[in-house]
């Protein structure tokens, strides 16, 4: 129940008092005139008080009305602002949905499989191409560790451990991985060669995800196989006439006394050109044999130091011609290692001939052989022209030659390092290098102490 204002209580009390006094005047025998006078006088006073009270109440009501009107205006303004905020939120939501749909359309339009994972390797996003590539639905991949669902094998068909998977390396070592030397397994028994690129994603200096692109390169491998077969066939057909040309050039050179100086120069040019062609044909044949898997790997206990020294004797003429200083060092207790001596000899041959060719006169070349608990590591270094930074990534590609040496040494086919990598990896090892342009290059390759695995085949290298 609401309470009356104080002024109203005062007036109510005055009315009661007025009535009481008037009754007393009548009861005490006073004259009616006096009672009436008192009543009129007191009533006037009460009317004045009531008027003042009403004025106060009116003023208060006006103030309250003004306050209510002001408050109502504020509420109306707040309502407008909230309405605008809601409209902005609806527009923002519509724009976000539009952008999300656009991103999803772009993602789905990518022809290669795309997989994004969290830092712990769990799948966050896949596109439709990934589903088609591996045969798994998105629901079967999202939230799972990608390298646990999709097995991967190397070129020899051996399953790759989790810590050696490109996705795992990208996340743990913070580097981009690109390769076409892997095989992936889809749902069921499907196995296919794949080109893979995996890179970490950074935000504020931290790795927040990794993105992998996967493409089935079965067709490209088939094309490469056909090219390899053609090169092998063509090379075999070229060897016979080239051998005949070389033999006749040697015969002419032996009878140089009956030739003029100009004719003798012609014969020498024929011999040199034929030798280069024979080297190219042999390299092409070796590449085709390794790529086709027809090469024989026949491991035997081998003394690597003796192998290198015998090879240097064979290269002695080229070394003396350029006045190079060659140093050979080896671990004191270096054991024999069970490898294919013909294949590993070819590796040393290619690295040493490159070092001789791309090191200026009076340069220095060093061969060092050491070992650790699991591998024997060979190092071939020089202080030659070095490799430009922009060319390093492509150095082991077939037919690739660094830009700086092409200008200095135009002769070359770009197959030597490709062969080195192929032979070392087929022998169970790894190859890598360090280089600085105009200061020199160091190549390293490792071979497992346990030796290479024997592999049957059809032909040997350089046969």
TrEMBL record:
Intracellular or extracellular location(s): Membrane
EC number(s) per entry: 2.7.13.3
Reactions performed catalytically: ATP + protein L-histidine = ADP + protein N-phospho-L-histidine
Domain PAS, chain residue ranges per copy: 99-150
A UniProt-annotated Pfam family: HATPase_c
InterPro entries on file: BphY/WalK/GraS-like, HATPase_C_sf, HATPase_dom, His_kinase_dom, HisK_dim/P_dom, HisK_dim/P_sf, PAS, PAS-like_dom_sf
Ranges where the Histidine kinase domain occurs: 233-451
GO cellular component, one term: membrane
Main location: membrane
Gene Ontology BP, a term: osmosensory signaling via phosphorelay pathway
Signal peptide location: none
Coiled coil: 72-106
UniProt entry tagged with the keyword Coiled coil: yes
GO molecular function: ATP binding; phosphorelay response regulator activity; phosphorelay sensor kinase activity; protein kinase activator activity
Phylogenetic classification of the source organism: Bacteria, Candidatus Gottesmaniibacteriota
Transmembrane segments: 9-27
Recorded topology in the membrane: Multi-pass membrane protein
UniProt keywords, alphabetically: ATP-binding, Coiled coil, Kinase, Membrane, Nucleotide-binding, Phosphoprotein, Transferase, Transmembrane, Transmembrane helix, Two-component regulatory system
Protein name as it appears in the record: histidine kinase
Principal EC category: transferase
């Amino acid at each position: 129940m609401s309470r009356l204002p104080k002024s109203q209580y005062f007036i109510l009390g005055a009315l009661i008092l007025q009535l009481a006094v008037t009754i007393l005047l009548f009861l005490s025998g006073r004259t009616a005139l006096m009672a009436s006078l008192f009543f009129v006088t007191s009533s006037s006073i009460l009317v004045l008080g009531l008027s003042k009270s009403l004025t106060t109440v009116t003023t208060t009501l006006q103030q309250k009305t003004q306050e209510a009107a002001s408050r109502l205006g504020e509420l109306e303004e707040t309502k407008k602002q909230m309405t605008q905020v809601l409209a902005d939120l609806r527009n923002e939501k519509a724009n976000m949905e539009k952008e999300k749909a656009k991103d999803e359309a772009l993602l789905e339009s990518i022809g290669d499989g795309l997989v994004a994972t969290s830092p712990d390797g769990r799948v966050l996003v896949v596109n439709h191409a990934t589903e088609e590539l591996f045969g798994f639905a998105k629901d079967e991949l999202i939230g799972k560790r990608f390298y646990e669902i999709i097995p991967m094998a190397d070129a020899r068909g051996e399953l790759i451990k989790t810590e050696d998977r490109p996705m795992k390396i990208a996340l743990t070592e913070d580097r981009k991985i690109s390769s076409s030397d892997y095989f992936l397994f889809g749902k069921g028994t499907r196995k296919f060669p794949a080109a893979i690129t995996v890179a970490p994603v950074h935000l504020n200096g931290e790795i927040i995800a990794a993105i992998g692109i996967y493409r089935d390169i079965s067709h490209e491998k088939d094309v490469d196989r056909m090219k390899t077969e053609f090169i092998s066939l063509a090379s075999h057909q070229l060897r016979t006439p080239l051998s005949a040309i070389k033999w006749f050039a040697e015969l002419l050179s032996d009878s140089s006394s009956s030739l003029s100086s100009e004719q003798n120069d012609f014969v020498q040019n024929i011999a040199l050109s034929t030798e280069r062609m024979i080297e190219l044909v042999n390299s092409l044949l070796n590449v085709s044999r390794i790529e086709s898997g027809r090469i024989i790997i026949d491991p035997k206990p081998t003394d690597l130091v003796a192998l290198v020294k015998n090879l240097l004797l064979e290269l002695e003429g080229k070394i003396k011609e350029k006045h190079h200083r060659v140093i050979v060092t080896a671990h004191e207790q270096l054991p024999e290692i069970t490898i294919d001596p013909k294949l590993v000899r070819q590796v040393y041959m290619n690295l040493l001939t490159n070092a001789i060719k791309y090191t200026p006169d009076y340069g220095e070349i060093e061969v060092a052989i050491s070992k650790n608990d699991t591998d024997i590591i060979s190092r071939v270094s020089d202080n030659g022209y070095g490799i430009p930074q922009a060319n390093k990534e492509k150095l082991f590609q077939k037919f690739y030659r660094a830009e700086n040496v092409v200008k200095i040494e135009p002769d070359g086919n770009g197959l030597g390092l490709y062969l080195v990598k192929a032979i070392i990896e087929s022998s169970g090892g790894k190859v890598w290098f360090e280089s600085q342009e105009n200061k020199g290059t160091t190549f390293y390759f490792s071979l497992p102490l346990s030796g290479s695995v024997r592999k049957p085949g059809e032909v040997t290298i350089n046969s």
